[in-house]
Design goal:
Number of strands: 15
Helix content: 40-55%
Radius of gyration: 26 Å
Distance between the termini: 56 Å
Shape: globular
Largest sheet: 6 strands, mixed
């Protein structure tokens, strides 16, 4: 922090950049090491590129790679993995979050609004003075961790003072009196925060931003670090400044807009390998929460909530992403304001059920106060803000397990046996026997995944400390333990299931056509899949159009979804982690449903080889044909409260929102779904015809933003496969 190049943008009110200029990012070879080929891909890929100079490539080739090869966290992870884990990983049974990034998927609480870094240094000194080297065998480790936290606190104070020095020099050179006044105030702010707790609205935002830069400079975290419930944290400062005449609503809005720009200047760190080729997203998944309830359970929507929504609508930029927490305590007026933004086609804010989030956190053992102060981050992941380290440990391809079961443990893409031999297709005499085989296969691969996860967690705990992040999360200082080593008050590891819709429809098709109607044998069905439906077009038409489908309030299909949910839940939930806590489940994909589809041959629902599978808990693209109310009735049959988050996407045509009736109807839909304990819902408002035109004439649609999974992105920046997947989603013109 004492050597980072400083950069100041013209007219900005919040200072600090991750790199030597906006939208620049380092690589993190201690976490994962880019190859020269990776750097070439990043430099030349046609959509969202990262420019890599010849000088940087030379330094990487001659210095960075030779030094770090075999020493990076990823190299350590891969060298520890069993052959079974590597086989499953290579086959697309699961992905691993920590292969390219470190943990850090967390959200800040209110600690920085109550304490300055000097306060935290005092707490550290107190804890060190109380270490018991007679009786505590961990005393020395705690001493080293606390000393590291103290150094990290000094580092961010030093960085702020460097910015203050530079701003004071800029004041001397500035000729515009208004800008000179702003620069003088900004310099004073940097002298105060983060050394001391903030006293004003502007100081609170600048303090957070220094903290944000510290977290993403220390290591390459897995996305999502953000201030969380910004309208709650900032409200006391906003009201006090307004009351004492230091601030106007218009000035507060301007400072917030500058804050938004800072987020948008911080791209996600560059990917590598297959991900570098396929993942063009620039976003870092920071998700700012507004609304919800207060610590006492009362309505938390306030004037600042609406002001932040105004900023979101007016700025219309990808980062930070935003969400509205909706409780039964919140007024309909708040939902209406959110939907006024949604209907513009921005893809933000996403909408979450506060009451469900609270219950999910209570089910996980959090206190009621910590649950009420929590929310969602990243895509849809639930956590206790400022008090929890909740790691995402990788996506799990639920549909691949069925494919392996139908092929007696053999991956039909490669011909390699990687799973259990549980019987050939003609050996299953009933649907229940097939389901039992699926369950055994699922448990086999979950065991492999969890064993790998525990190795990874152990490696990270020992080799990748984050003392600066540990300063910011409750209980790490009292425990004298690092955030990455279980120091937080709560520690959760999530495994994210992907392909619920595709898996459900596939098993439904087998039950319907093989075991109930008897129109085809399972052996013949598997042969049809191996042919990728070539020569079986009529049967494929029947699978797609004349077979019960998940997402249509059809109990025949939905029953399979609930049975499969139970299997996944029982396979994962409560299993011990290396950090001394337990694994839990999420149901979300980000963009992995596209990659997982590429790793699958044809599936029994009529999907052809290589096509994306369903995303989140959403129905298969185009399979929901009875309207939004049927969709939410299906989704409500899943037990969201036993997850840490579920993701539901819907697409509405713009004409749905003509007049107030559309917003009123959608408000009722949201309220109804949330009364049924639905966790999350989000909307794309765009015509398929517009998206097709954007594919043909991208130059005409440079500002077209769509909701992908748990984040929004420019349509033009998406891969062709992801563009097609979004186009295929069912488009509603009426509630139905």
């Amino acid at each position: 922090m004492m050597n980072k190049k400083l950069w100041f943008n013209e007219g900005e009110l919040i200072v600090g950049e991750r790199g030597p200029e906006p939208k620049a990012t380092p690589t993190y070879p201690e976490v994962s090491l880019h190859t020269i080929e990776d750097l070439e891909i990043l430099d030349t890929r046609p959509k969202v590129s990262f420019k890599v100079s010849d000088e940087m490539k030379k330094v990487y080739k001659e210095t960075v790679i030779p030094y770090w090869k075999g020493k990076s966290n990823r190299d350590k992870i891969m060298s520890m993995m069993s052959r079974e884990w590597l086989n499953a990983y290579e086959a697309g049974v699961f992905t691993e979050f920590q292969e390219q990034r470190a943990p850090g998927h967390t959200v800040l609480g209110d600690i920085i609004y109550r304490k300055g870094m000097l306060d935290l240094k005092n707490e550290i000194a107190h804890r060190i003075s109380r270490l018991d080297f007679f009786k505590d065998p961990e005393a020395y480790d705690k001493f080293e961790e606390l000393k590291a936290m103290d150094i990290a606190a000094d580092a961010i104070i030093g960085y702020a003072n460097r910015n203050a020095d530079a701003l004071e020099q800029m004041v001397k050179e500035e000729r515009d009196e208004e800008r000179k006044r702003e620069l003088t105030e900004m310099a004073l702010i940097c002298r105060n925060v983060p050394a001391y707790k903030p006293e004003t609205f502007h100081e609170a935002l600048q303090y957070y931003w220094f903290v944000h830069l510290g977290v993403i400079t220390e290591v390459n975290p897995w996305d999502s670090f953000n201030p969380g419930r910004l309208d709650q944290h900032l409200l006391p400062f906003y009201e006090k400044d307004i009351r004492e005449g230091r601030l106007t609503k218009e000035r507060a809005k301007e400072i917030l807009m500058s804050f938004w720009v800072k987020f948008n200047n911080q791209p996600a760190p560059p990917k590598m390998g297959v991900t570098a080729k396929e993942s063009n997203t620039y976003t870092d998944f920071a998700l700012i929460n507004v609304g919800g309830v207060k610590s006492d359970g009362s309505d938390a929507v306030n004037e600042l909530s609406y002001l932040i929504l105004d900023v979101i609508e007016e700025m219309r930029i990808l980062q930070p992403s935003s969400m509205a927490q909706i409780s039964k305590k919140n007024p309909d007026r708040f939902i209406h304001r959110v939907l006024e933004i949604t209907k513009t086609g921005f893809g933000q804010p996403s909408i979450f059920n506060t009451d469900a989030i609270i219950q999910e956190l209570l089910n996980q053992g959090k206190s009621i106060i910590d649950a009420r102060n929590g929310g969602a981050s990243g895509c849809v992941e639930t956590g206790a803000f400022g008090k929890e380290a909740y790691w995402l440990t990788g996506y799990f391809n639920l549909t691949k397990i069925l494919e392996l079961t139908l092929n007696n443990g053999v991956d039909p893409r490669t011909g390699k046996k990687i799973g259990l031999e549980l019987g050939t297709p003609d050996s299953f005499n009933s649907f229940d026997e097939l389901l039992e085989a699926y369950k055994k296969q699922l448990n086999f691969f979950i065991d492999i995944k969890i064993e790998g996860n525990n190795k990874i967690e152990s490696i990270i705990m020992r080799n990748l400390p984050v003392p600066f992040l540990s300063l910011l999360i409750e209980d790490c200082i009292p425990n004298g333990r690092d955030y990455n080593a279980g120091g937080a008050r709560y520690n959760t590891s999530y495994i994210q299931g992907v392909g619920t819709g595709t898996l459900t429809d596939s098993l439904t098709a087998i039950k319907y056509h093989v075991f109930d109607k008897g129109s085809i044998s399972l052996k013949s069905f598997v042969k049809v899949l191996s042919d990728n439906f070539d020569g079986h077009e009529e049967f494929r038409y029947e699978l797609i159009n004349k077979t019960p489908k998940y997402g249509n309030d059809d109990i025949y299909a939905d029953e399979q979804a609930t049975r499969l949910f139970e299997m996944f839940y029982e396979a994962v939930n409560g299993r011990p982690t290396a950090r001394g806590r337990v694994f839990r489940i999420n149901l979300l994909p980000t963009t992995s449903h596209v990659y997982f589809g590429q790793m699958l041959t044809a599936t029994p629902d009529g999907r052809k080889a290589g096509e994306p599978i369903s995303e989140g808990i959403s129905p298969v693209q185009g399979a929901d044909r009875k309207g939004p109310t049927a969709v939410i009735n299906t989704m409500a049959r899943l037990d969201h409260l036993r997850t840490g988050g579920t993701l539901l996407n819907m697409k509405f045509a713009p004409q749905f929102f003509k007049g107030q009736e559309g917003i009123t109807s959608l408000t009722h839909l949201i309220r109804t779904y949330f009364r049924m304990d639905g966790h999350h819902i989000q909307f794309n408002v765009v015509n398929a015809s517009t998206l097709r035109d954007a594919q043909k004439h991208p130059e005409k649609h440079g500002d077209l933003i769509v909701r992908v999974a748990g984040y929004s992105d420019y349509f033009n920046d998406l891969t062709p496969e992801l563009q097609e997947e979004i186009i295929r989603r069912t488009e509603y013109e009426e509630m139905g």
